[in-house]
Structure formats: C-alpha cells, structure tokens
Amino acid sequence: MAKTLGTARHRALIALLIARREAAGLTQTELAAKLGEYQSFVARLESGQRRVDVVEFLQLAGLLGFDPHEAMDQLSRIQE
Amino acid sequence: MAKTLGTARHRALIALLIARREAAGLTQTELAAKLGEYQSFVARLESGQRRVDVVEFLQLAGLLGFDPHEAMDQLSRIQE
DNA sequence: AGAGCATTATCTGAATTTAAGATAACTGAA
DNA sequence: TTCAGTTATCTTAAATTCAGATAATGCTCT
C-alpha cells in the first residue's frame, strides 16, 4: 500500500479538489483560512505532495460544498 | 486541519473498515497479505493510530468488496 | 512592454508520522 | 490449562508533513 501519491486516482482526486475550490470561487489562501492552515498547505495538497485522508476529504466537501459520496463514485471508476 | 485522528468520523471510518473486513471473512493477516503489507499495518489502521487516505480507502473497498460511495455517504452524515 | 498586485509553487530545517519486524497479549476451543 | 490463531504494542530508522518565508507565475491596466 503505502505509496498512493501520484497514482491515477490520486491525480484525479487532486483535479477534483482543485475544480471544486475554483467552482466555489476561492483562492488557496481563502480555503487555507477556512481550514485554519497556511496557503502552502493547500498548495502541497493540490500539487500532489501530500496525501488526503478520508476525514479531511469530508471536511473539504463540507467547506467547498460538494457531495463527497458522488465524488467518491467518480473516483472509484478510475482504474487503479 | 491536520489532526483528524480520533475524531468521530475517524472512529466511524475505522468501525466500518473493521466490520467490512470481518464481513469478508478475513483476518488482519490475510488482509495485510492482499495489501502487500504487514499485519501490524492493518492493526495500526484499525486501532486508529494511522490515517486512511482516500486512495487507500478505495483500494480497501475494492479488496473487501464494499461500495465506497455508499460508505462515504454514511460517514458524511456523522457530525464532525 | 512593464509595474503592480493577486495567486500559486517551492524551499529549508524541525517536528511529527509511519514502517518493518519482532514480540507480547488476548481469545476461544479442546 | 495448553495451544493455535488472531490482534496489539514496541523500537528505532525512514519517510512525511509542517511552518513560515520567499520565489515564481499570471493578470490587468496604462
């Protein structure tokens, strides 16, 4: 297991998060503020340098206003 | 963000993973083998000592035969 | 073109997490 | 109680992640 960074699903996850942040009209700095984190945190997340855990994903869905189970559905269709 | 370990959602996630592994009739050792990991890896996961990332969650869903988007739906209902 | 501003990416130690592998503890059946 | 199967914990090395700063990139306006 261990290395999920850079897999097709991970890349798709990132793309989804970026798209959702942009759709919400937020900058990395603004999202970071909502999360109580630095902008570099969001940058590392979105540049694939850091894994996204399940609980964080749910928080992000809440903040960005997307449906986590629908998003998961999309991701699950991607070939691992 | 950062600390998602031990949150209500994290505990629920773990409970779900354990239930699904048991429903699949697998021991930690057997699941570990499928994952290419040690039994202690699964133990740490299930005892809440390690975060579960989104991509791993999808892999686990595949191996344990559960629907990740349905599982996510359950988790998302839990108060954060 | 370029000045200025907003936005995103990268860098550097330090702190935190994670892993391997072994061993200990627990559980239940005979 | 003993034994086998299963799960939990320990140790230390390795890998991630972080804070905070700075650099790079991209707009927009003139």
Task: Give your account of this protein's structure.
- Two copies of one chain form a homodimer.
- Chain A has helices spanning 8-23, 28-35, 39-46, 54-64, 68-76.
- By secondary structure, chain A is an all-alpha fold.
- Chain A has a single domain (8-76), classed as 434 Repressor (Amino-terminal Domain) (Orthogonal Bundle).
- In chain A, helix 2 packs across helix 3 (39-46).
- The two termini of chain A are 12 Å apart.
- The mean pLDDT of chain A is 95.
Query: What's the quaternary structure here?
Result: homodimer
Using the 3D structure, state the CATH architecture of chain A.
Orthogonal Bundle
Number of beta strands of chain A: 0
CATH topology of chain A: 434 Repressor (Amino-terminal Domain)
What coarse outline of chain A follows from CA principal-axis ratios?
A: globular
Beta-strand residue fraction of chain A: under 5%
Q: Return the average pLDDT of chain A rounded to an integer.
A: 95
Largest sheet of chain A: none
Quickly count the domains of chain A: 1
CATH class of chain A: Mainly Alpha
Largest interface: pair, residues per side: A-B, 30 and 30 residues
The CATH superfamily of chain A bears the name: lambda repressor-like DNA-binding domains
Rg over alpha carbons of chain A: 12 Å
Q: How is the secondary structure organized here?
A:
Two copies of one chain form a homodimer.
Chain A: H1 8-23, H2 28-35, H3 39-46, H4 54-64, H5 68-76
The structure holds a DNA duplex (30 and 30 nucleotides).
Summarize the structure.
The structure is a homodimer of 80-residue chains. Chain A is built from 5 helices and no strands.
